[in-house]
Amino acid sequence: MEHEFQNQCPYCGEMIWMEFYPEEGRIQETIIDCEVCCNPILYRVRFDRDGAADVRADKAQE
Ligand SMILES: [Zn+2]
Known about the structure:
Blueprint: E1 4-8, E2 15-19, E3 27-33, E4 40-47, E5 53-59
Antiparallel strand pairs: 1-2, 3-4, 4-5
Bound molecules: zinc ion (ZN).
């Protein structure tokens, strides 16, 4: 199963890779700093029953 997901930084558009494991929960979120612009990104993933993931990246603060 795929564990790495990418999404665009909501500030600068850089593609950010994150790892999530479905064994750690159906819904997970974490805040990481963009490597390029250093702004905090709220990264959320939701796993379906079959393991498919819906990943979102939003600004952690305005
Ligand atoms: Zn960025």
